[in-house]
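Tokens as discussed.
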């Protein structure tokens, strides 16, 4: 069907009350199975790449590969560059991503504003959308990162940040964190509601892996739109590959293992698409 702009995909989702999973890929199969899952679910999908992986897959190769799959897909697909510093964002703009993230969340407020604005200005010339982050989304292995409300995004500050930077979407800290959680996360729903009220741009949830189903659906209902899923997708590949190779099936044929991952990994993505669509919206 089409490669679509991030802003158009998220606007559609907001209008129709569903969230879009942003699946972190790491090879050809992880991209192909996520897009196939979206086709079977008949819903859009965001494919994203963490630029720190560029020694494993060069940015341009990942973009070209995903665009080739997207052009042949029956559903909208967009390609996003995940957590980037300035140089990575510039490289991502050059490589042809529809959207890039500039992550200045560890910087003091004024520096995050200045850095984000500089990338927004650069990306705008190419029609590329910029996701920013305010309030630091930490790691799930550090309990205080997702329980200490001092670290969460302040709605007033977020509104000021969006206005000053012109970012297209904003990643927020609302009780979520990256990687494996040491304790079941509990999202701050009052804060999500307050952020939604204060901001007109789409809200992004990082660390969407392992957040319980009901909490994810509530976050969608409160107006969050893009949900990053990396840890759980990696785990799905790892566990199913381990199971296949340990079973002795297709012995010594590495490709057989990659192909055996299609079923379970597609089911995983389809379950996320369904979870993020509590109203059961269907594309026209
Ligand atoms: Zn993230």
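Sequence:
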């Amino acid at each position: 069907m089409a490669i679509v702009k991030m802003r158009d995909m998220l606007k559609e989702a907001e209008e129709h009350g569903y969230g879009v999973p942003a699946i972190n890929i790491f090879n050809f199969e992880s991209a192909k199975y996520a897009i196939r899952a979206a086709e079977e679910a008949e819903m859009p999908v965001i494919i994203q790449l963490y630029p720190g992986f560029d020694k494993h897959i060069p940015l341009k190769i990942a973009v070209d590969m995903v665009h080739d799959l997207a052009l042949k897909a029956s559903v909208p697909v967009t390609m996003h560059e995940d957590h980037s510093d300035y140089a990575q964002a510039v490289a991502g703009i050059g490589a042809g991503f529809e959207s890039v993230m500039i992550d200045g969340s560890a910087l003091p407020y004024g520096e995050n504003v200045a850095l984000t604005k500089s990338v927004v200005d650069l990306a705008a010339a190419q029609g590329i959308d910029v996701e920013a982050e305010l309030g630091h989304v930490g790691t799930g292995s550090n309990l205080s990162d997702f329980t200490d409300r001092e670290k969460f995004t302040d709605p007033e500050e977020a509104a000021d940040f969006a206005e000053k930077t012109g970012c297209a979407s904003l990643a927020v800290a609302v009780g979520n964190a990256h990687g494996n959680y040491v304790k079941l996360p509990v999202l701050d729903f009052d804060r999500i509601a307050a952020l939604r009220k204060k901001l007109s741009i789409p809200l992004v949830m990082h660390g969407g892996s392992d957040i319980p189903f009901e909490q994810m659906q509530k976050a969608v209902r409160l107006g969050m739109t893009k949900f990053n899923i990396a840890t759980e997708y990696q785990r799905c590949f790892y566990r199913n590959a381990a199971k296949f190779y340990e079973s002795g099936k297709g012995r010594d044929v590495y490709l057989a293992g990659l192909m055996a991952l299609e079923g379970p990994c597609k089911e995983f993505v389809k379950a996320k698409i369904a979870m993020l669509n509590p109203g059961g919206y269907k594309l026209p």
